Each structure stands twice: as C-alpha cells, then as structure tokens.
Amino acid sequence: SVGAYLDGSGALHESPAGSTVIAPWRATDGPWAERAVALLCQAGLAAESRSDARAVLFRKLLLNSAVNPVTALAMRENGALLDEPALLRTAERAALEAARVGWRLGLLPREFDPVDALRTILSETRGNRSSMMEDLARGRRTEIEEIEGAVVRLAGEVGEAVPVQRALLTL
Questions:
Q1: Which residues contact 95 (CB under 8 A, 6 or more apart)?
Q2: Residues classed as catalytic
Q3: Per-residue pLDDT tens digits for 65-80
Q4: pLDDT (tens digit, 9 = 90+) per residue, 107-145?
Q5: Which residues contact 137 (CB under 8 A, 6 or more apart)?
Q6: CA dist list (Å): 94 to 2, 31, 101, 124
Q7: What whole-number distance in Å separates Cα of residue 2 and Cα of residue 163?
C-alpha cells in the first residue's frame, strides 16, 4: 500500500506514507504472515499484517477503482480530486458503489468508511500520478478492465447496481 509514480523525467518517486501489508490466503497461515512482517520491520521497512488477503485486495481494488479512472480521464494528479468538487464526488460515488459490492461479498467490515479511506489515500498521495493516467499519457493499454471491469463483474454476481463504475469502465 505504498504509492509510487514516475515523474516527467522517468524517475520513480514513492509517497512517504504507507506500508507493506502481508496477509494470508488461509487463516492457518497467519503465523507466516506475522513472521514476514517481523522480518520486514527488522530490516527497517514499514509493514503490517492483516488476517485475510482477499479483504486487503478488495480494499485496494475499491480505492483504485475510485482514483485511477477519474485521474486518468481528468489527466490530473491524485490531489486534484480533493481540489475539484465534481471529480471528488465522482470518485466518492465510485468508492461507495464498490464498497456495497465488498459488503455483499463479505470482504469489507460494515464499519469500513470508503469515503474516509478515499480521502485519506488522496491526501497521502496528493502529488502522485495514477498508473492509469501514466498509461494513457504514454499511449499504453490501461488496467481499466482489470480494475473497473472486476468491480462491475462482481457487482453483477451479487446483484448490486454500479452505474458510476459502469460509466468509468465505458469512458
């Protein structure tokens, strides 16, 4: 969960916030995740463990589905979403739709606040350029199908309407 971006010269920059998250696919592998976190911390890296890899990945999918296509379409850095009310509302709606899918799948706790998580990640990565924006700027294929497409497919499986996600996928 450490953000990074390439600047105009091609130099790689990481955001100062964030840590490496380790989570097991099986609950019985929790001790291995804890051991990996301990080793990373001993090496001076920020790391934390979570109990379920699927929940970690879904949260990342949710945030990427709200940030990446909006920044790519606007061709703006992540922080622009906080500064432009229309962009922020679009990203918040996308995050809320994805969260409803995650709740129905049992991958997000009910107390998870997708808007707060979105605003936090935007603040922490204010100067970053999303990978999707970078891909568009360089004329490369984006991950829209893997990100928005995944949310739309999962929403279909659980019968959840996601009109903003569908619109971002189409755009």
A1: 62, 63, 65, 66, 114, 115, 117, 118
A2: 60
A3: 999 999 999 999 999 9
A4: 999 999 999 999 999 998 898 889 999 999 999 999 999
A5: 75, 129
A6: 21, 35, 11, 19
A7: 29
